[in-house]
Amino acid sequence: MIEAKSLCKRYGNFTAVDDLSFTVEAGQVLGFLGPNGAGKSTTMKMLTGFLIPTSGTALINGIDVIENSVAARKHIGYLPEGAPSYGEMTVRQFLTFIARARLINRQDVAGHVDMAIDKLNLAAVARQPIETLSKGFNRRVGLAQAIIHDPQILILDEPTDGLDPNQKHEVRHLIQDMAHDKIIVISTHILEEVEAVCNRVMIISDGKLLADDTPRGLISRSRFHNSVSMVVDEPEKVASVLSELPQVAKAELNEGELTLFPAGENGLFEAITTAIANNKWQVSAMRLEVGRLDEVFRSITGKEAA
Amino acid sequence: MSNTAINGAVNIMRRELTGYFATPVAYVFLVIFLVMTGVFTFYLGNFYERGFADLDPFFRFHPWLYLFLVPAISMRLWAEERRSGTIELLFTLPLTTVAAVLGKFLAAWLFIGLALVLTVPMWFTVNYLGSADNGVILAGYLGSWLMAGGFLAIGSCMSALTRNQVVAFILSVVVCFLFLLSGLPMVMNLFKGWAPQVILDGIAGLSFFKHFADISKGVIDLRDLVYFVLVIGFWLIANVVILELKKAE
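YS: structure for the whole thing
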């Protein structure tokens, strides 16, 4: 379990993280979402014991990260931002070094290294110096060192940054595989990633916690939640007719697509399909929207909504 | 230190040594070191002309050689970790700062020790040419290695101050230079006449030259050994403190 208690980090007058408290329990995949410079990385650095908070503290499985930093670190696997590693070492040398540093028994080191190489598909480059590898391989080496001791808590700062779509898919798959009995905290500014792997999202901006919810819960905050978008002939006429329906709160026309916002909880989609059938409108596309995370993100973090 | 701390330091040391030999750094350093000691000994030290079967002309120039070569080794110790961001990786491993500092220092110290060992043909040469006092020569090697440790501890500490290796190199050379010079007349004359004898002795006592000269004469005085151990200890502790204070900057 991770318990953050009023974490604060100040640099002079600048407050990077402002009174952040939260707990994360086993089985949760928590996504830190926020604009660049929001304090995501700073928070992670404090959880992993690299930065000492200006005030407040965090407990890792009950161990204080300030009082007993080295003991707390044993429970954590950490991928720092940018996946730093010792470029002159080969992948296998580097992972062996990390495995030893992670206090794995001498006779088990090779087994753990093989496991990590296997999980991240690094076998083909295991004998190459890390600095000769592509950005995607570099990131996977960083992930391999984070999971090498099978930690109970994984903290991954932008784990899929620099990966191509296939590699992103693989990494997300890996995270989901490990998720059921672990705590995983990832930071990202890729919204689709949150929807793909997280079961909890914290939106952070200017060091403050602005929202703490499930991805579904966040999406339902969207003004597009349960709205209906359609492409139809003579959209202005259709819009004026549908606006009269009691289920329709508002109709918006945007680049030829007509979006109708619901007035109540239910019945918008059915009311519209009935109206279409009765008026024999020519509809070429139509969909029920669940919501738009990017729009929620922008409205919560204070940027202009789309 | 606990077992885990020792294992941690040894693991760091091993990684560092692997790093040296994975890059040209080690080979360039070793070749330059051997060429320079040769040049100093035979040309500047008049090894043959003197007609003595000893290694005094070899050891005499070590302080000046170390002044530039040791900072060249130590400059990357921490500055490189900062620049590449691996310092964050290192200090989120279950490892104390003390173990990391010791591991890195020991690796570099052993490496310089290796460079010294590679000069052993010089030792064979004096034994071939005449009957050398091998005890004195052994003491010379010990003193030289200890002095290198002193330079290295200063360099490691300076390297922790910056992410720029060039800055680390210059700072190290300057501080090492001050430590070297503190016993020479040009510094002592500044203080003579007005400073009390205690301070004069204190400043003179800080000099690498004096302690190294004592040991390399074959007189292994406990005070000289303690001096180098204290110098190394002081700068390594300063190194740990600097890292703890400004790990993330």
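YS: worth flagging: Residues 3-245 of chain B form one domain.
IM: good catch. Also Residues 134-159 of chain B form the longest helix (26 residues).
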